[in-house]
């Protein structure tokens, strides 16, 4: 057993940083000033450094809290681990919705993810459009949410309003589609649109319905683009609606398709080059 004696303590009940500490070990005196040591005080259940800024360094070891929680540094990364198979990493007692977390940040301090006590999870980086992916067991992205680009759900059926989808897309609820009214003019956007239902509610003259080259090219043979054209003015018998493709493609092999009956309509799909009536 080693001898350990602390002597030359001041008469006061507390020891200051400048006080001289003498340690006697195996008969040899070893002296150090208090400035070489860190003093900690305990108030109730809290252990605090006497001098602000003093820290405990674990080196390559781990800090433990309780029987299951360990904090360590691995290859420069901070690791918080719960060694229990059923324990939580984060939990805010008394808040059934979860925790308020300052967030995961990159090396520049920009927040990448935050979890709020109201249950909101915020993903993304300021100044960069967010893309979130969920990978399968083979590390292949099957779900992607892109704030400005393509998003997709692969690997199974997608249900809206149902937890048991029985088709690629199962909808248990209402559905709405965009309606674009040509009004008292021809329809000729000459640009890529998100139009689906094209209506003419003023056929006091013949109207041209021209599907743009960009819209035609947005369709493919495997995944065509759909349009629905309708005479809402009930006057197409007198003034026809003539449908053509801006790129010069055919519709059912002809140069155009015509709605020539009052209240008439036609369904059209385009495959990147030509159109077909359905």
Which structural class best describes the helix and strand composition?
Answer: mainly beta
Radius of gyration: 36 Å
Instruction: Provide the CATH topology of one domain.
Output: Jelly Rolls
- Which blocks of ≥5 consecutive residues have pLDDT under 50? 93-100
Q: Based on the coordinates given, report the CATH architecture of one domain.
A: Sandwich
Q: What pattern of helices and strands is seen along the backbone?
A: EEEEEEEEEEEEEEEEEEEHEEEEE
Q: How many distinct helices?
A: 1
N- to C-terminal distance: 96 Å
Helix share of residues? under 10%
Q: Estimate the global geometry from the Cα principal axes.
A: elongated
Q: Which range does the strand content fall in? A: 35-45%
User: Mind summarizing the main beta sheet?
Assistant: 5 strands, mixed
In which order are the strands of the major sheet placed? 17-18-20-23-24
């Amino acid at each position: 057993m080693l001898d350990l004696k602390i002597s030359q303590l001041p008469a006061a009940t507390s020891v200051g940083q400048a006080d001289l500490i003498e340690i006697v070990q195996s008969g040899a005196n070893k002296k150090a000033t208090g400035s070489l040591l860190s003093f900690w005080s305990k108030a109730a259940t809290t252990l605090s450094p006497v001098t602000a800024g003093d820290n405990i360094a674990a080196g390559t070891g781990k800090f433990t809290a309780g029987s299951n929680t360990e904090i360590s540094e691995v290859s420069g990364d901070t690791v918080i681990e719960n060694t229990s198979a059923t324990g939580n990493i984060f939990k805010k007692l008394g808040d059934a919705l979860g925790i308020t977390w300052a967030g995961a940040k990159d090396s520049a301090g920009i927040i990448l993810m935050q979890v709020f006590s109201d249950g909101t999870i915020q993903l993304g980086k300021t100044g960069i459009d967010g893309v979130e992916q969920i990978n399968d067991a083979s590390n292949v992205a099957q779900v992607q949410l892109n704030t400005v680009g393509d998003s997709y759900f692969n690997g199974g059926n997608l249900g809206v309003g149902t937890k048991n989808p029985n088709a690629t897309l199962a909808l248990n609820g209402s559905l709405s589609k965009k309606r674009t009214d040509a009004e008292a003019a021809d329809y000729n956007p000459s640009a890529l649109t998100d139009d689906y239902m094209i209506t003419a509610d003023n056929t006091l003259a013949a109207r041209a319905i021209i599907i743009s080259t960009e819209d035609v090219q947005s369709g493919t043979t495997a995944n065509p683009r759909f349009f629905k054209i309708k005479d809402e003015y009930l006057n197409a018998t007198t003034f026809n609606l003539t449908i053509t493709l801006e790129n010069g493609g055919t519709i059912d092999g002809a140069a155009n398709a015509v709605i020539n009956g009052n209240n008439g309509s036609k369904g059209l799909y385009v495959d990147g080059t030509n159109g077909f009536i359905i």
